Amino acid sequence: MTWEQFINKMADFAVSAGMKLLWALAILVFGKILIKLILKLVRRTRFMRKAELSVSRFLLSFIRIALEILLILTIVAVLGVPMSSMVAIIASAAAAIGLALQGALSNFAGGIMILVFHPFHLDDFVEAGGFSGTVTDIGIFYTVLKTPDNKNVTIPNGTVMAQPVTNYSAHPIRRLELKFPVAYGTDIQKTREILIDEVSKHKMVLSDPEPFARLSAHEDSSLTFTVRVWVKRENYWTVNFDLMEAVHRRFAAENIQIPFNQLDVHISGNDAK
Fold first, then answer.
1. DSSP state of 41
2. Potential cystine with 111: which of 106, 131, 157, 172 (Cβ 3.0-4.6 Å)?
3. Backbone angles phi, psi at 86, to 5 degrees
4. Of the candidates 219, 216, 117, 221, the residue with the CA atom closest to the CA atom of residue 170
5. Cβ atoms 154, 144 nearer than 8 A
6. Which DSSP category does 205 fall into?
7. CB 186 within 8 A of CB 169
8. Domains of the chain by range and CATH?
């Protein structure tokens, strides 16, 4: 190959590579504009407008990443890189990352399940992962609870979805159940009437469903009455403490004894031989 032929060949390669680079640059610019347009249209859909902020952010991020990966693959193909090689590299990288981040992927999957199935929402009071508190943040990998004593608990989403979740804020009203022991020999009808009267007087106790009070158990040292009332969820603990105090005062005024654990021992002696 003469020097002139080499120069011509390099010039042809430069022209060809330059055209590919120009096409790749044009596709990059056009792709970025198209991605922004698609995200803008998705953001305006009815589903996105009604979805929670955490859900919409996650979906938009997922769509954006997927579109950018597609754009990069398109540019690589335009530059002449064999797609089979790219697919093999991506598959190998994905397998290596998956093995290294098994826990993170479990949390990521848990985050997706939380965002899709909505076992709880922000500001709900829940019991999850062995902790109870108000949900302050729902992330892709972690959920944050603020406990009643004002501590933040960060729970991996994989743990949250692997265990039962109790949502105390799922319904606007809750049933409060209290148990009151009284001594054996106490008038059952009178005790029941006192309990119904006390719970019915409380302004935060709902009349529908109506309050319930009945003798529910014969314990070793007491008769146990069960009281069930319905309250708004935000009044649950206020009513709980108020009724405990009110019933105690009423029992004292009505001379109804609150028993304590006791054991009756009967001794029989044998005549000495």
1. H
2. 157
3. -65, -45
4. 117
5. yes
6. B
7. no
8. 9-100 (1.10.287), 119-167 (2.30.30.60), 173-253 (3.30.70.100)
Average pLDDT over residues 56-67: 78
Q: Which residue intervals of 141-223 are DSSP H helices? A: 157-162, 188-201
> DSSP 3-state assignment of 85?
helix
Extract the tokens encoding 19: 């055209």
Distance (Å, rounded) from C-alpha 163 to C-alpha 174? 23
The band of 61, judged by pLDDT with boundaries at 50, 70 and 90, is confident
Q: What is the overall mean pLDDT for the chain?
A: 83
Whether residue 183 contacts residue 222, with contact meaning beta carbons closer than 8 Å, is answered with: yes
Q: Name the token pair of 119.
A: 């076992």
CA 167 to chain CA centroid, Å, is: 8
234 secondary structure, DSSP code:
G
Residue 130 token pair: 């062995």
Given a contact cutoff of 8 angstroms between Cβ atoms, the answer to whether 214 and 199 are in contact is: no
Q: How many distinct helices (H) and strands (E) make up the chain?
A: 8, 8
What's the DSSP call for residue 148?
T
The CA distance from 218 to 233, in Å, is 31
Cβ distance 214 to 226 under 8 Å?
yes
What residues contact 135, with CB distance under 8 A and at least 6 apart?
120, 121, 122, 123, 124, 125, 126, 143, 144, 145
CA-based end-to-end distance of the chain: 133
pTM of the model: 0.62
pLDDT for 3 beyond 60: no
